[in-house]
Amino acid sequence: MMRTRMRTRFTSFVLTCALLSAMGFAQSGHHDAPEKLGTVSFSTSCSGTVQPQFNRAVALMHSFQFASAIEAFHAILESDPTCSIAYWGIALSDWGNPFATGLKSQAQLDAGLKTVEQGRGVPAKTERERAYLEAVAHLYTDNATTDQRSRKLAYESAMAAVSAAYPEDTEAAIFYALAVSAAADPADKTYARQLKAGAILDRLYVQYPDHPGLAHYIIHTYDVPPLAARAAGAAQHYSEIAPSTPHALHMPSHTFTRVGDWQASIDANVASVAAARSAGQPADELHASDYLEYAYLQTAQDNASKGVVESADQIFSRFDPKMLIGGAGGATAAYFARAAIPARYDLERRDWASAVKLQPLASPFPYTEAMTYFARGLGAAHLKDGVGARAAIDSLAQCRDRLNTMKEGFWANQVEIQRLEVVAWLASSQGQPEDALAGMRRAAEMEDATEKSVVTPGPLAPARELLAELLLESKRPAEALVEFEATLKREPNRFWSLYGAAEAAKRAGDQERAKRYFNELVRVAERADRPGRRELIEARGSLSGQD
To answer: Which keywords belong to this entry (predicted)?
Structure first.
């Protein structure tokens, strides 16, 4: 029921978004459409003439339009050079997306520290404004000797102090909650930080329903399977609050993806892709395209998904890796989507022959190259190409080791999961089912122990889904059904888990459950290409009694 309400409300709004995207966005330099960024009130001691500009700059920052925010803060300083708090806004924008997984570049750190030092050179007019600048300084100070997580926690503590010292300062509370949420440990399954941040954001959202940061950060904070439904209201409204920003159009799809509302995700990302293109934000365009590709593939709209694949190279050609700060999506998002989109297309369509031909794109981020090697390895294993599978396994190990050297532990772990999966499927192809199942169980346990990065709508292939498919191949349908259902709990409405659950139930003799899952599959894929995938033809035949 929740998915139906979300889809109806969002779809009715997406036409407006598409119109706006054609007319220009916050970073596009076009102003034909009235700019709508939401309502922000950030009091300052700066000249009264720049206060509206300051509120606009903070609103841009809340929707992760960092380059535009920096430009706006610089314009404020030109009008009022004594507005030292503007340096806080520039420094926080220099940090970029606080939810991005991985280490900030040295160039970003240098830029942020320089901004902080410039701000310190302009005497603060109030202790509150000084406290904001000194808080953000923690993100950059001693970055050669203090690890990133420690600096993020120091920033969080400083913002806690600002919020406590100025309890009427709504913005301080919002930025504090953002710091709490952004520092969440992906391995913490109590979701303590998400719940703590969410309590602050939810309370304020009731009071300030037009605030862009509140809706935005609620979606991010609850972007984990057990909590996703809590973001339903924010997901419905955020695109209406700040339609002049591509990220506000995309962000609701994080929630839609978590609850398996694929059409709502498609609508959101069609609008966001168009908006990002108009705004000149190719990294954001690619990020939204990856979410769009994922949703198309879950609904078996393979022709539409092919169009996304074909456009990815052209979008990436417009991406400038030297650009430090733009919108929500940075270099990591661009390289990630460029690798993920074609890999998803081949794997989700079970086109193993195409998967083995994918070519890795050299990247500063080894985990993006790893996606291509994973797709090649899984394809080779299914084709019983031991040489190809082993080559992919070796390449994945090299990517993992590079990531460990770079101190990117989260991503090293993700690549190791992929390596174990290819090893398991290679073992299966070589007639070693028990070794294969043991390896896949290990991979599934590792995947269960963490959460995905916000850069991806989901893994290229969920580990428990792959485990279930191995169990089905091993003629253990009852066990396979358990694993397919576990996947659906974490990744609702996934095409292959719905089909697999139906097939496993049928082979286990549970015809009622098989019928239920076939029904769900047909419903989820109601807009699928016709005649479409063999599995959908089978599902329709089974439901009509022709199976």
So the answer is: Signal
